[in-house]
Amino acid sequence: MTRRLAGRSVIVTGGCRGLGRAIALALAAEGATVAVAGRTEQVWDDRLPGTIGETVAAIAAVGGRAAAVRADLTDREDVARLVTEARDALGSITILVNNAAFTAPGRPPVPGGPPRVEPAKPAGAAKPGWPGFVSTPLSAFRRHFDIAVFATYELMQLVSPDMITAGGNSVINITSAASRLPGDGPYPDRSGGVLPGYGGSKAALEHLTQCAAFDLADHNIAVNALAPSKPIMTPGLSYYATAFGDTATEDEFVLAAVQLALVDPATVTGRTIGHHEVLDGSFRPFDPV
Predict the structure, then answer these.
(1) What does the pLDDT read at residue 48?
(2) Where are the alpha helices (DSSP H) in the chain?
(3) What is the pLDDT of residues 141-182, one digit of tens each?
(4) pTM of the shown model
């Protein structure tokens, strides 16, 4: 079998579980060497299984090559160290997948530190379990942007020299239909809840994707945002709900991620694309379900 990404080195953030883990495995199966980045080195919540070491082990078990890099993307020193360690372990980075995002229950406890105490939620939250505008403190709102936007911004800047020297390649930013929710009011049905920090950071990420794609167009570098066309029951999403009706599978999403890593920057860049549009080849602008 031809491995279409042989000789390429990749960073995947948020590679402990869910879509990040699945994307790391899929890229490795295509021959890429993968730096699996994340904070989780040991499982700290049974509802959120997976560690960076387990993802690396799964890649090695099928003959791939990967390196685990523990990194806290809210820490600028860690962001820079992530790129340095990935480059030292695997060589020049020519594919970047910005998958990490801040979702409940948030961050693993500090090793050796006190147990985490969940903050009391202000009165007025519309739906228990969904941290809406009233119940999301500014510190948590800001952390969404620290991880999904500011760290992504810096990672793209740090790996751009590698990609420019290589003559091109691809950045994939994982986004979500939450960037467009709840949409225009009024809101007679508020049973679904909203995620202002998560959705707001994804909306900013999509604009950042366009800005980076515009500036990197002369260097044969594709920068695109990939969104699930339908909900995918990852551990993070399952933390909030057990069912979402019509859903998609991880397998088809990661197939789209691989195809987007191989796309021609001259024809597809600066796009926010649903994974179904990638798979059917139409590359229409993403219209959230």
Answers:
(1) 74
(2) 18-29, 52-61, 76-90, 138-145, 151-166, 196-216, 235-238, 250-261, 275-280
(3) 999 999 999 999 999 999 999 999 999 899 999 999 989 989
(4) 0.88
CB atoms within 10 A of CB 84: 11
**Tokens 């994974």 sit on residue:** 275
Element (H, E) at 92: none
C-alpha to C-alpha distance for 52 and 70, rounded to whole angstroms = 8
**How far is residue 67 CA from its own chain's centroid?**
18
CB-based contacts of 250, cutoff 8 Å, min separation 6: 18, 19, 22, 232, 234
Amino acid present at 47: R
User: Is residue 83 within 8 Å of residue 96, measured between CB atoms?
Assistant: no
Task: Write the pLDDT tens digit of every residue in 229-238.
Answer: 887 766 555 5
Output DSSP code: residue 165.
Answer: H
- For the record, the structure tokens of 250 come out as 């991880």
Helix, strand, coil in percent for the chain, rounding step 5: 40, 15, 45
Contact present, 87 and 93 (Cβ < 8 Å): yes
Q: What's the rounded Cα separation, in Å, for the pair 247 and 277?
A: 15
* Tokens at 190, concatenated: 């508020």
Q: What SS3 state is found at 240?
A: coil
> Among candidates 31, 14, 143, 157, which has minimal Cα distance to 83?
157
